[in-house]
Amino acid sequence: MLIWINGAFGAGKTQTAFELRRRLVDAHVADPELLGFAFQRTLPPAARHDFQDLAPWRSAVVDVLQQAEAAHAGPVLVPMTIVRDDYFDEIVGGLISRGVDVRHYALIASPETLRMRLSTRIAFVRSGLRRETWAMQQIPRCVAALDQERYATHVHTDQKTTDEVVEWIATDAGLALDAPRLAAWRYQLRRVTVGIGHIR
């Protein structure tokens, strides 16, 4: 089974994926963004645009995720924003056409919630490692696209904690969680650790 965790920037995809992995002992996180960075670093600076626009990246994502799902006994978790209809059909539809059991979840949040979450991330990395200006600019586009029925199953997160989102997805996908929730202080420590590990 492959669980694609979609959502606007700031929706909580990465935190959800890694907490789901912690609570499912046989889960594996496969991040297509890493393939995108590899493509970008291979290209000269003038050609480094949005890697999702690269046809070889989209093709590679389908190939690699198909192999990952076939090779791994447990669920493969894919935290990745994808909001262009044609790219979604090419990648997610491509995986389904190859017989991969894809469960797609779009984490939905209001623009206000997304801006609040991203502003917290800005404060966290204000030292200059990264700014979230670009991600803020993508909020209207992502929210409008993900509201479409093609991006179901929708998981509304404005009033849900990460634990509640993880448990909702696990229940919907028919997965039994192996580990309990973390204590609040331990969860916050883990959240920071995951966040630092994904500063690009």
Question: In summary, what is this structure?
Answer:
This is AAA family ATPase. The protein is α/β, with parallel strands linked by helices.
Q: What does this molecule look like?
A:
- With 200 residues, the protein is of the alpha/beta class.
- The chain has one domain: Rossmann fold (3-Layer(aba) Sandwich), CATH 3.40.50.300.
- Helix content is 52%, strand content 11%.
- The protein has helices at 13-23, 32-42, 55-71, 85-97, 111-124, 133-137, 139-146, 162-173, 184-197, and strands spanning 2-7, 28-29, 76-79, 102-108, 154-156.
- It has a five-stranded parallel sheet with strand order 2-3-1-4-5, sandwiched between helices.
- It is globular and about 45 Å long.
- The model has no long low-confidence stretch (mean pLDDT 92).
| End-to-end separation | 28 Å
Helical fraction equals 40-55%
Strand arrangement, largest sheet? 2-3-1-4-5
In terms of DSSP E residues, the strand content is 5-15%
- Tell me what the CATH architecture is: 3-Layer(aba) Sandwich
Please outline the helices and strands.
Elements: E1 2-7, H1 13-23, E2 28-29, H2 32-42, H3 55-71, E3 76-79, H4 85-97, E4 102-108, H5 111-124, H6 133-137, H7 139-146, E5 154-156, H8 162-173, H9 184-197
Parallel strand pairs: 1-3, 1-4, 2-3, 4-5
Helix pairs in contact: 1-8, 2-3, 3-4
Keywords, separated by commas or semicolons:
200 residues; alpha/beta; Rossmann fold; 52% helix; globular
